[in-house]
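Progress report, Aim 2. The chain analyzed during this reporting quarter is listed below.
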Amino acid sequence: MPPQTYKLESVFNEAAVPEITFVEPKDFGFVRASIRTPGKHVTIVGPSGSGKSTLAWKAFAAEHVRRDDILFINGRHHSATPSFVEAIEREFGIAGVGRKGVADLLSGTPFVFVDDFHHMSPGCRAELGHLLKPWGEERIRILLVGIAASAEELLGVDPELGIRNDPYEVKQQDDAFISKVIAKGEDALNFEFAANSRVDIIRASRGVPSVVQAICRVSCIEHKIVETRLAKETISVDLAALREAVLRSFHPKYFSRVVGLCKGKQQARSVHNTYFEIVSAIASSGQAEVPLEYLRERIVGPIADPAERNRKSTSYYNCLKNLKEVIVAQEMEDVLLFNDRQNVISIEDPSFWFYLGLLDLNQVRKRIHVRGTAYPYDVAISFAGENRSDAQALARACQTVGLEVFYDFDQQHILWGKTCDNGSPKCIRWRLYTWWFLYRATTLRRTGLPLNSTLARARRRSGPRNTSFR
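Predicted structure tokens for the chain:
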């Protein structure tokens, strides 16, 4: 009979700091030493679900730093707070004490723990970077948890900060680490996974602690193991059958962001399917780092018709042009990295990599109104030279609300050396709407475009529409 009874949620729980199944990562002793060292700040970075916050809390506990002695700040709560001093004021429920008043408040706090600091506003992060060195000299100590890119930006503010800050990076764990997590849970609940199931779970977790916690918790629920068993038993797990149950653990964190990513920058009632195809190709690649050439081959390569392939290629590069902005808008900077210098898209968050591999993208397709790329541009603007300032203002206004706009200055690389086909540029037929600037009759003559015939062709076709401005 097991010596102690545990509830499942205290053993396997991807949403909380593990008590029973905590395994010390390799830097655990060094983080403890940093916490013990007066005048040291501590920075812990890594992808989501890698155990950064768990490492911090466990190191505090091991050094007997009580939670009451820690000012905990969730960076997500200060995404719009203009300065770090104001963030501290808000945490204390006061206002207007300024930098010196805040320093006096913090002097009696052993540690300030800022979690998800990369979600703080740029103003918050910049001011914090400048404050770390002087506050360290005043024995105000900060422990930061976030993603690597933001840490480099923050700590790069002051080149003399290096010796006052100990940085640690938490990466994916190895199979031995994941196996220890599983074994601790098995011992606590008095059961064991069949050998082949254990191998499958370790492989599926991809070295991510939160993922193995989720898989093990769902597996136990499936076998009605909700607390420590009186008699030990062996269970086999079919991960494919548990797919939906495991996904439910990650849907709240990722699903809406995947939907937003598939919509791209487009804010109209329908979206280009090219964004959706980019996400689908990344998901099916099975790689954490996907070359742009691979994506292009998957999305553009199979199209046999030259005209359609050209339209899809245009749509693909338009999507890439906006991709960084889309990633930021969906708050996925800690999840996806678009490296246009190395021409790759990399998944920085292993939990998301796991999630994307399991997700049925048809669920995403149902949430968005996907339209094809017969018209890779939403709007084409036709105008005479003297009306360029108005045309450009219209183009920028359309782009601001997420429309794909054909405006000649933006597409010079496409138009270079091209001639008109039947009097109108081919690209003007690749749009849902055309805006014509009709100021004077002479304007129409100087454009060289036979407006009447173009409008007539448009009326005979379904879909594209024309709007004129006088």
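The chain has a mean pLDDT of 83. The radius of gyration is 28 Å. These observations will guide the mutagenesis work planned for the next reporting period.
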